[in-house]
Design the sequence.
């Protein structure tokens, strides 16, 4: 694995106001993620997994401490700068597929490349390559309503990977899928991780996902209680 550190958090704290008090979702989280990792933040519902992923993905900011993504401090980025960083360097996969219903599969996958200003021929090639990775080239002209849940999630993976981002953040990506589709999707992600050296960071409490992880970060009540590498 490459030793380049892509993400680093230092004494990361996140609090949300609750009436006159506050809820502390993350407590002094210190983590590093390197290029090519296949890691997961695991823990029960409410442990802070999604909050951590949102901060790493510049969708939220710390209350105190620091989160550094590809050399940029998340807490210092403007809205515009964080959007640019997301567009260029991050891919997101959520449990809800978040596909545009009026767009075809091809157009859904192409959308991030349009935001990047890539020219048409290069876009077409990149989209077809991404659809090939997830074995959906035959569905390029179909709309999301005509897809199964497993196929829709594969489109979401293609959309996340099409721009070859440094990091993909996946929040409960198998939550709405049966076992067979979950394993198909995990196998695709594992192959992409190995072939492209894209770093994957999952938030999950799904045992099927946990079995695939090479590093497991246990989060409980906002605290990192264990950080372990899995022997292959």
Sequence:
């Amino acid at each position: 694995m490459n030793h380049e550190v892509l993400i680093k958090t230092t004494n990361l704290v996140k609090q949300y106001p609750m009436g006159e008090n506050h809820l502390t979702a993350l407590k002094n989280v210190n983590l590093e993620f390197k290029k090519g990792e296949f890691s997961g933040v695991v823990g029960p519902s409410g442990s802070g997994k999604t909050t951590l992923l949102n901060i790493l993905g510049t969708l939220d900011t710390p209350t105190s401490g620091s989160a550094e993504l590809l050399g940029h401090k998340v807490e210092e980025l403007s809205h515009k700068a964080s959007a640019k960083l997301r567009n260029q360097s991050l891919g997101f996969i959520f449990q809800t597929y978040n596909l545009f219903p009026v767009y075809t599969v091809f157009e859904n996958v192409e959308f991030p490349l349009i935001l990047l200003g890539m020219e048409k021929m290069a876009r077409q090639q990149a989209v077809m390559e991404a659809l090939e990775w997830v074995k959906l080239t035959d569905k390029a002209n179909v709309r999301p309503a005509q897809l199964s849940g497993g196929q829709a999630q594969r489109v979401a993976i293609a959309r996340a990977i099409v721009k070859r981002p440094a990091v993909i953040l996946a929040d409960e990506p198998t939550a709405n899928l049966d076992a067979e589709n979950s394993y198909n999707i995990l196998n695709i992600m594992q192959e992409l991780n190995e072939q492209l050296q894209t770093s994957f960071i999952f938030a999950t409490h799904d045992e099927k996902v946990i079995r695939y992880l090479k590093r497991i970060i246990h989060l409980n009540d906002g605290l990192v209680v264990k950080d372990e590498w899995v022997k292959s």
